[in-house]
Structures are given as structure tokens and as C-alpha cells.
Specification:
CATH class: Alpha Beta
Strand order of the largest sheet: 1-2-4-3
CATH superfamily: Imidazole glycerol phosphate dehydratase, domain 1
Strand content: 25-35%
Largest sheet: 4 strands, mixed
Helix content: 25-40%
Length: about 180
């Protein structure tokens, strides 16, 4: 069981992988998206969070969940994942690389959730390209994005048995 805590003067967030996962941010639609993301990613994602403003809460939850994903990414992860998900009128594609290079490209009809994905990528140290291929209903587009990203992440996190890079494993050293 891994846990990440993030606390600022604006928010308190706990994100964990644990049995009996529960999501509680005080924002029902956001809770639904996080539950969807965790389920589709194959993660027993638990999140408890409170904050002063929805913007701060969504951003800090993304940073905590991203850091948690980085912590559980195996060195021998398959690294890449891609999924396209339909949801009624919406069709969204997610392509991810969990190889340690943070980058996000994409736009959703709700800036709050575009910001979630960008913040998630920063601390997960992953590259994510989201493409809305079709759709007009913002709820369906956002939900399809969380589902597609979850499924792509599930594929990328799967153990491939070897370090999947021509560089081999990357070692960092930081001196005091």
C-alpha cells in the first residue's frame, strides 16, 4: 500500500492505493471522474481531499495522484499505452508514456479538467496526449478522457519484464 500526502495552506490531500478504495473530495462530479480513472487504470485509488477553492483542490489532487502513480511505476513498465474511448456523442483518444518525461497536450471543454491532466503529468512525470475526436456534451467528453487515460495508463504500467528504453535504466544522484 502506497500513500502520498500533500498539504498546503489551501488544501489537504491524501492519495493512496489500498483495498476498499474511497474517493471523497467534496465535489461529486470530480469524485466520479477520479473513481472512473482509478477503476479503468486498474488501481484501487483512494483520495481524501479538502480545499479552499475548487481550482486549488483539483490541481492539488492531480499533483498528489500523479506523484502516487510515479511512485508505483515499475522500472520495467511497458511504458506506452493508447486507448480511444467512445461515450455517447464523445470520442476521446489518450496516448501516454510513463517514461519520466512530463508533458501534456490536449484541451477539454472544461478548463478545470484540462488543468487536472496537465498537473497530473507534471508529478507523474509522464507524457500524455489527449485528443477529442468527436462530441459536444462536456460531461461525456471529460468522462471519456478520464476513461481513455485510465485504460492507457493500465497498459503503460503493466510489467514488461525489461527496462523499455534504448538508454537502459536512468540513475540520478543528488548530493547535499
Amino acid at each position: 500500500m502506497k500513500s502520498v500526502w500533500r498539504e498546503t495552506k489551501e488544501t489537504k490531500v491524501r492519495a493512496a492505493i489500498e483495498a476498499g478504495a474511497r474517493i471523497d473530495t467534496g465535489m461529486p462530479f470530480f469524485d466520479h471522474m477520479l473513481t472512473t480513472f482509478g477503476n479503468y487504470a486498474g488501481l484501487s485509488l483512494a483520495v481524501e481531499a479538502r480545499g479552499d477553492l475548487p481550482h486549488h483542490l483539483v490541481e492539488d489532487v492531480a499533483l498528489a495522484v500523479g506523484r502516487l502513480v510515479r511512485e508505483i511505476t515499475p522500472a520495467t513498465a511497458r511504458r506506452y499505452g493508447e486507448r480511444t474511448v467512445p461515450m455517447d456523442d464523445a470520442l476521446v483518444q489518450a496516448v501516454i508514456d510513463v517514461g519520466g518525461r512530463p508533458y501534456f497536450a490536449g484541451t477539454l471543454p472544461r478548463r478545470r479538467y484540462t488543468h487536472w491532466f496537465r498537473s497530473f503529468c507534471t508529478t507523474a512525470e509522464c507524457t500524455l496526449h489527449l485528443r477529442q475526436l468527436r462530441g459536444t456534451d462536456p460531461h461525456h467528453i471529460v468522462e471519456a478522457a478520464f476513461k481513455a487515460t485510465g485504460l492507457a495508463l493500465r497498459e503503460a504500467l503493466a510489467d514488461g519484464g525489461v527496462v523499455f528504453s534504448t538508454k537502459g535504466s536512468v540513475a540520478w544522484q543528488v548530493s547535499p
